[in-house]
UniProtKB/TrEMBL annotation:
The keyword Protease does not apply. SMART domains: FMN_bind (SM00900). GO terms for cellular component: membrane. This is FAD:protein FMN transferase. GO terms for molecular function: FMN binding; metal ion binding; transferase activity. Its cofactor is Mg(2+). Its EC number is 2.7.1.180. It comes from Candidatus Scalindua rubra. Residues 139-220 form the FMN-binding domain. The chain crosses the membrane at residues 21-47. It is an enzyme of class 2 (transferase).
Length: 591
């Protein structure tokens, strides 16, 4: 047989290009006598997979957005399934220290992304009969949720799938597959097709299921089988099921985390602490996911990939990220460029990214002004090839200027608030308040009240309140130079820069926007701040379902307040001498 001739398929420079090997042979039979033919032998075929935000165009086995959510069990049903012999289930929240997390990762030989776990303890007649953790792993594209329980000796009692989101591979929820895990422990390697029989078409889900099971067993072993937390079990709170939970009075729970370089706080009225912890964990997971999507500080984020590649060629972009960018361009249009997500180069020139303000020269500013324009961002739909399913439509991002960069700091937190509210609603919460660095959403109302009371901090006297207003099912965002500014030779320079001139905005001290969603409020509070008093208030009055408060310096450098027509009746200027005398559920400051 003659030497095979490899033929490259795809981009000449693509590291993912495929090879077909053509082997020339001389044969008879179905071929004409004496005619050379080529028998195509596929010895190695590596499909060029186009990942989100990758500039390569090629083939993928299954589109990432092709999924179907299948709910097999609720959380309550899953606990009853794995603890059928228990008369009581309590729960324990473990917040990992860096040392504990590293120890678990070393045992597993891989990274874990959880910062905490809720561990359920099944008890029968006062004796512990098992431990369980509800966790998630990523299949091929999407996360699936499952529960693993183990007995006091560390052997698996039961395992079940709660939610599966892939379009294929739901067979891992079948009893005959899950039964293979029963009785196994950390001592078992859980090898595919040796310890655990694989499922054709669901290999990635099977692999990650094995990894997830080991993770749960490692956590249980680290904290309970070792005896570290067994003394605490008697004092743990009980999980309330069904009617018992519904009868419980609603209590206000609060929790905060750090994300996107600032504090994210959620307050919610929930029936008990366990429900609150579960809800808060779900919300914080969503915020962390969005941080990895939109951060321009994390090199591995989807936005960082866009910023790295989009000036060279149109770059495929994650659908959700493309949506946020498109929303940004919309608000740039309606504010005549006063809101602009390409502001980054100017922020660097003024020293705000490093926290050390400086006054750049005019030439310095002009050197980057051409790169600062939302019109430099081109979003297009292109055909994305799929070997198995045919072509599909995907979004690409391209920068017309090589120095253009996207910074979603002026809209990303608002979008994150909207997504967090969606998580709260999905968990059945009816009353909650989110505060993300001046971006607020007041969802529902506190029990027994008609609204949430929002307090607006005085922009120059942090111990004073400027005024209050009451809202429900509304978003609020305040932009101002409350915290981020610098002073040189007695002059105050705001961190809010006009992208059209390159200079910090003067005259405006604070802008508060009240509207139906936090994404809109976040973008408009910045845009109106840059537009100034007259143009900014005109825009507020023109837009439907948008109200606002603008605080500005008058000709005597004294602070004055102007409200939109619909805000006049809502905003109550504070006349009390002390903050203690003013009732408010949250105090908002300008970010």
């Amino acid at each position: 047989m003659r030497k095979a001739n490899p033929v490259k398929i795809g981009s000449a420079n693509s590291p993912h290009a495929s090879y077909l090997f053509f082997i020339p042979i001389t044969g008879r039979g179905f071929l004409s006598n004496g005619v050379n033919a080529y028998l195509i032998l596929i010895l190695a075929l590596v499909f060029e997979i186009t990942l989100p935000c990758s500039a390569q165009v090629g083939f993928e086995e299954e589109p990432a957005n092709n999924y179907q959510i299948q709910v097999f069990l609720t959380e309550e049903q899953s606990l009853m399934k794995v603890f059928p012999d228990c008369d009581e289930v309590v729960y324990d929240e473990i917040i990992l220290t860096d040392e504990e997390k590293n120890r678990i990762q070393n045992r597993l030989g891989r990274r874990i992304f959880e910062e905490s776990f809720i561990v359920f303890v099944g008890i029968n007649s006062g004796e512990v009969v098992g431990y369980a953790i509800i966790t998630e792993e990523i299949g091929k594209f999407h996360p699936y949720t499952f529960i693993v329980s183990a007995n006091p000796k560390g052997k698996i009692r039961d395992i079940a799938i709660l939610v599966y989101r892939e379009s294929r591979g739901a067979e891992i929820a079948h009893k005959r597959f899950l039964y293979q895990f029963k009785g196994k422990s950390l001592k078992n390697p859980l090898r595919i097709n040796k310890d655990i029989i694989n499922i054709t078409g669901a290999t990635m889900s099977v692999v990650t299921m094995c990894s997830g099971v080991k993770k749960v067993l490692a956590v249980i072993d680290e904290f309970y089988l070792s005896g570290k937390r067994t003394d605490m079990i008697a004092s743990l709170e009980r999980v309330k099921f069904g009617v018992e939970e519904q009868k419980g009075e609603l209590t206000l729970f609060k929790k905060a985390t750090l994300s996107m370089g600032t504090t994210f706080e959620v307050s919610a009225y929930v029936s008990d602490k366990y429900k609150a912890e579960k809800v808060f964990n779900d919300v914080f997971k969503e915020i962390k996911r969005l941080d990895y999507l939109m951060s321009n500080y994390k090199e591995e984020s989807e936005l960082s990939k866009i910023n790295k590649n989009a000036a060279s060629e149109p770059t495929y972009c994650d659908d959700e990220l493309a949506y946020v960018i498109e929303q940004s361009l919309h608000y740039s249009n309606i504010t005549d460029g006063a809101f602009d997500i390409t502001i980054g180069p100017l922020m660097k020139k003024w020293g705000f990214f490093k926290g050390q303000g400086k006054i750049p020269g005019r030439e310095e500013l002009e050197s980057v002004l051409e790169s600062v324009s939302y019109k430099n961002i081109i979003i297009e739909e292109k055909v994305k090839k799929s070997f198995f399913r045919g072509p599909s439509i995907a979004k690409t991002v391209f920068f017309k200027n090589p120095d253009t960069q996207i910074d979603l700091g002026g809209i990303g937190k608002g979008y994150a608030v909207d997504m967090a509210i969606r998580v709260l609603k999905g968990n059945g919460i009816k009353s909650a308040l989110i505060n993300f660095a001046g971006n607020i959403y007041a969802y529902g109302t506190p029990p027994g009240k008609d609204s949430w009371i929002i307090g607006l901090q005085h922009p120059r006297k942090s111990e004073d309140l400027l005024g209050t207003f009451e809202i429900k099912d509304k978003a609020v965002s305040t932009s101002g130079d409350y915290e981020k500014f610098f002073t040189i030779n007695g002059e105050r320079y705001s961190h809010i820069i006009d992208p059209r001139t390159g200079n910090p905005v003067t005259g405006i001290v604070s802008v508060t926007i009240v509207t139906d969603n936090a994404t809109k409020a976040d973008a408009l509070s910045t845009g109106v701040f840059v537009l100034g008093l007259d143009k900014g208030m005109n825009l507020i009055e023109k837009l439907p379902d948008v109200e606002g408060v603008i605080i500005y310096e008058d000709i005597n450098s004294k602070l004055s307040i102007q409200t939109s027509s619909g805000m006049e009746a809502l905003f109550k200027i504070n006349i009390k001498e002390s903050l203690k005398d003013v009732e408010s559920d949250v105090i908002i400051t300008g970010s």
